[in-house]
Amino acid sequence: MPSLPAGTLYRGKVGMWSWVLHRITGVAIFFFLLVHVLDTALVRLSPEAYNAVINTYKTPLIGVAELGLVAAVLYHSMNGVRIVLIDFWRKGVKYQNIMFWIVVSIAFIVFAIFTPRHLSHVFG
Amino acid sequence: MSVVIEQPRSPRSRNGANWEKYGWIFMRASGVILIFLVLGHLFVNLYLGEGIKAIDFAFVGGKWSDPFWKVWDLAMLWLAMIHGTNGMRTIVNDYATKETIRKALVTSLWGVCAVLITLGTLVVFTFDPCPAGALPELLPSFCPVNAS
Fold first, then answer.
1. What is the mean pLDDT of residues B115-141?
2. A121 and B81 in contact by Cβ < 8 A?
3. According to the model, what pLDDT value does residue A8 have?
4. Chain A interface residues facing chain B, Cβ-Cβ under 8 Å?
5. Quick one: average pLDDT of B48-58?
6. How confident is the model at residue B148 (pLDDT cuts 50, 70, 90)?
7. What pLDDT score does A5 carry?
8. Which stretches in chain A have pLDDT values below 70?
9. Do A54 and B56 make contact, defined as CB atoms within 8 angstroms?
10. Which residues in chain B touch residue A23, judged by CB atoms under 8 angstroms apart?
11. Residues B75-86, mean pLDDT to the nearest whole number
12. Do A26 and B87 touch (CB under 8 A)?
């Protein structure tokens, strides 16, 4: 019976899953960015048009979805720092594993601070 | 189509600018700047004050009457669009197996990128916080129609 691959920096372990998450969050943020440039462009049309569209961002459904967007931005930005450190810091590769958990911790802490305040705005 | 993988350590076979390298550097440089621009944007617009509840035309009008936020948002628009489009290009290059489809997708990505950067830049530069004929209660308090 073949043994499981041991895993490397890029395969099977934290190195791979951090990369998968970076891609997924990146694609999600990209498509929101396209929508967000278009909705902001409505300020050039009329105050009524902009307010009508931006008010949908204040509904419970989209308000909760914004938490997902913020979580994606937090992970993608913190893991981006980790990538830069792996590329440019002499000990980056050695500490890439622990850096992933630091990334997740920082993202989670900021998310935990943001979430109750945002929900109080959406549902308040 | 067969994929040709060059021998490791073989000299570069192409002449001219190494665009993949500039792209690689740009992703890291723009990414570091975008951390401050985007997290600052989220903090000011979603965390401070009434957050998402406070965002309307008058809010944007107030921000863009200050050159600081115009420069901030323009930098964020350009860097985020190019960073995001180049990231999508990387993903397309990884997964598209047909060369014609890959080319079509990459061309569409940069086309959309150019259109949205142009649109966003024009909007910021031609924005009028006090458009004539609009309902005064929808406009920022500093507009002449709200002055008295």
1. 95
2. no
3. 60
4. 23, 26-27, 29-30, 33-34, 37-38, 40-41, 43-44, 46-48, 50-51, 54-55, 57-58, 63, 66, 70, 73, 77, 80-81, 83-84, 87-88, 114, 117-118, 121-122, 124
5. 95
6. low
7. 63
8. 1, 4-11
9. yes
10. 91
11. 98
12. yes
Question: Minimal Cα–Cα distance from A37 to chain B, Å?
Answer: 6
d(CA B37, CA B121): 16
- What is the rounded average pLDDT for all residues in chain B? 93
What residues does each domain of chain B span?
Answer: 21-141
Instruction: Tell me how far apart the 2 most distant CA atoms of chain B are, in Å.
Output: 76
Residue window 60-119, chain B: list those with CB within 8 Å of chain A.
Answer: 60-61, 77, 80-81, 84-85, 87-88, 91, 112, 116, 119
Could you tell me the pLDDT band of residue B6, with boundaries at 50, 70 and 90?
Answer: confident
CATH topology of domain B21-141: 3 helical TM bundles of succinate and fumarate reductases (1.20.1300)
d(CA A114, CA A87): 30
- In the predicted model, what is the mean pLDDT of residues B24-31? 98
Contacts of B116 (CB under 8 A, 6+ apart): A34, A37, A38, B81
- Taking residues B98-110, what's their average pLDDT? 97
Q: What is the ipTM of this complex?
A: 0.90
The DSSP secondary structure of B40-72, one letter per residue, reads HHHIIIIISTTGGGG-SHHHHHHHTTSHHHHHH
Structure tokens at B31: 């990414």
DSSP run (H or E) holding A15: helix A14-41
Q: Which two tokens stand for residue A28?
A: 């999600």
Residue with tokens 């076979």: B13
B26 within 8 A of B82, measured Cβ to Cβ: yes
Q: pLDDT tens digits for A35-44?
A: 999 999 999 9
